[in-house]
Amino acid sequence: MNKLKSILLFSTVCCCITATSQTSDKGLAVTGSVQSDVLLPQEDTSIGTGSYDKDWLTNSYAEVGIMSKYVDAGLRMEYLERPLPGFEKDFKGWGLANAYAKVHTKGLEVTLGNFYEQFGSGFILRTYEERSLGIDNSLLGARVTVEPLKGVRVKALGGYQRYYWSHNDALISGGDVEVNLEQWLPSLKDASAYWSLGASYVNKHEKTEVIMADPTHRLNLPENVSSYDLRTRLQKGNVSLLAEYAHKTQDPSFDNGYIYRQGYVAMLSGSYSKKGMSLLVQAKRSDNMSSRSRRSVNGISSMVNHLPAFTMTHTYALAALYPYATQPLGEWACQAEAGYAFKRHTPLGGRYGTNVKVNFSHIHAIDRHVIDGGMRGTDGYGSSFWRWGDQTYYQDLNVQIEKRISKPLKLNFMYMNQFYNKTVIEGEGGMIHSNIFVGEGKYQFSKKLTLRGEAQYLTTKDDEGDWMFGLLELSFLPNWMLTLSDMYNVGETDIHYYQGFVTYNKGSHRLQLGYGRTRAGYNCSGGVCRYVPASKGFTVSYNYNF
To answer: Which listed site, 219, 364, 445, 511, has its alpha carbon 20 to 30 Å from 265?
Structure first.
């Protein structure tokens, strides 16, 4: 196994060198980036930072890629020998984290090394990098993409998934076929309609291991777990419809308590949009769809698939204080969103027009009736498709209004009513019901000078009680930006989480210096969350893209 990984990595590096030497005089394009986030930590017992044994911490990345007419190649180095808070333990280390070479011609693409891939919506396969969450679940192996016929794309792949500074032993392989029917049916093209069909298959081959059902009986673990995905998308004019279904065979794991129930997810999504108006409606039911390349781990590592959260991604600090994490073992998720732009010079539009958006999401438990006590080695439970369980996991109703008062002044307002089941999402804490009010103003003094401010208030009788947040951001285009903010717990803790940043941009360079406190909590993206411990100190962030 280790020999195979070494051969693949060595071959990839050789391909990178070869590609560079063969195309250096034939219009070679070179791209890359550098990212370094540094913290000079300070202990603060009032927010619970704990102690530090290093005087500086950093997560740093450097990558370079070359592109030519027929060959692309690249690599990424990472330095986390002194990782930022929350990245200790498994993340610690440094070295070559990613390397690949790609050969491409018309209708054919072959990739060797580390690569990222997603089939459909990601229900059975999604590998990606998200540094803020500490996710890099790339596959080390090979991928082939061909277009044998017009409107037809076929993918085949195989590899081993990255697990921090090593790779899991399970072999992930599979394929995907997508057909654009408008290329074959002239009537669709004549009607300006687009209709695609897709089908995917993924297999996980993982050797068995000793896991006991009870003190005298060992589980007979399947060495092969198969997943299937079928989907169709239709778009005509302003209307778009997507239906997708995925199924997974028996996959006993740490996540599901080593039960043998099969898993599935079904989704239906529809949208309508035209100038000044948009509408989105989505529904999804998932059941036992946690899929990993290592059955005995938990957390956010080793995930082969991805189940998107049907909730709005909030950017305001207090609206994002209690973010939802998708529950892959089962949930009913529904979301609806409507947006409307009131025209200028109308009673509700005023002189400059008014934009209004309403979003509602509700996540609920699925019905479960226990089978054989829900013990290891059994099916665990049964579940009726249309019946809901007895718990609400999350609910969010928010209304946003964007209004320009004058040419230099623009205002945004948001109201949000939220239910957050902290016990389900974090393990304890009960249901938190909160109301959140946000006001944002942006005033442009000149083409180069802009001031933006935020005032937010979260009120709740649960958890730590009420919160306040304020922010001022002064921009001096094109180079400078000064930001000051404070998040204050009015309720239980009476603690201020203050921060200040100075940012300088010049061309492709971005440098940010800061100081302040960071609250312990969850950082989420797309329904995937990572716990971030409290921290305090000076920060330096540098980004460069070329």
So the answer is: 219
